[in-house]
Amino acid sequence: MLPAIHIAGIHVPMYSLMVFLGIVAFFVTYFLYVEKGEKLDRVTSNRLLFVSILGIAFLGFSAMFFNSLFHTIEAGEIRIGGITWLGGVLGGVPFTVFLIHKLVPKAKGRALYYFSLLVPGLVIGHAFGRLGCFFGGCCYGRVTDSIFGVIFPEGSLAAQQYPGENGASLPVLPTQLFESVFEFVLFFVLVIFRKKLKPYNLLIYFFAYGVFRFSMEFLRGDDRGSTGFALSPSQFICILLLIAAVLILLFYRGILFKGLAQKCAVWQEQAAAAVAVPVRSSRRNPIGEIEELHRLMKAGIISEEEFEEKKAELLKRI
């Protein structure tokens, strides 16, 4: 545990620093994995990035809402504050997928694919966040006599719940580090095998993290609120993630939501046709087609480079 460091006389909370590094890691991953890796045009990239920022903000709100809800259930009175990552995922993922569908024209009909591109950034961002939890002394595990035991200092939450000698805690499992290592490994797997895995990043994350976190809950020793029955809040949400993963898999296989799949196909065809039609009819009305191409560029359906190239072709025909 290291609550804070001092740099040039400035007090820097380690939890906040790790969260900041996690956000930076997300945007670096976005630039390299999504924008450069997918060769997105500037308009589409900017729109997807804007949606990502809105999604992260809503993820934070959802994380606080569900944490407050679970502690309210446990206490029997309203408790507001704190965050839970899985609560953020529960609200943030569907919200961001919806925004991608509505606000990124090229992604219409492929919102799950485009969100999957964001998953590695979320994974590494959370990996840094879990390091912040370790430094801050929260999200610790049960008391243990194994070689993995960590003693948290006097004044820490672990020391208050599991008091040991000299005001420090008894040895507890560093579940924060276990989870951080898991997510760093998952991040590198998704990046190294990018070509094969990228369409299924979200599916993989729901399965892998859902199973891991459900199991990790048996080792946790901190107060995480209550659902009102046997499962912990995180285990309850993990089950929802696994159910969502199964539904997504069946959707990909064409077994469920066939009507939605047909709509997605139509949306994709419309996006492709919006680019193709102006080129085919350009011989009749070049000026009008240039205006139409400009509209498509502003809407993010074609890039600025594509607009300039087609515009030059049409001007030669005047």
From TrEMBL:
The chain crosses the membrane at residues 12-34, 46-66, 78-99, 111-128, 173-193, 200-216, 228-252. Its EC number is 2.4.99.-. InterPro entries: Lgt, SHOCT. GO terms for biological process: lipoprotein biosynthetic process. It is an enzyme of class 2 (transferase). One of its GO terms (cellular component) is plasma membrane. It holds the Pfam family LGT. Residues 289-315 form the SHOCT domain. Keywords: Cell membrane, Glycosyltransferase, Membrane, Transferase, Transmembrane, Transmembrane helix. One of its GO terms (molecular function) is phosphatidylglycerol-prolipoprotein diacylglyceryl transferase activity. Signal peptide: none annotated. Belongs to the Lgt family. This is Prolipoprotein diacylglyceryl transferase.
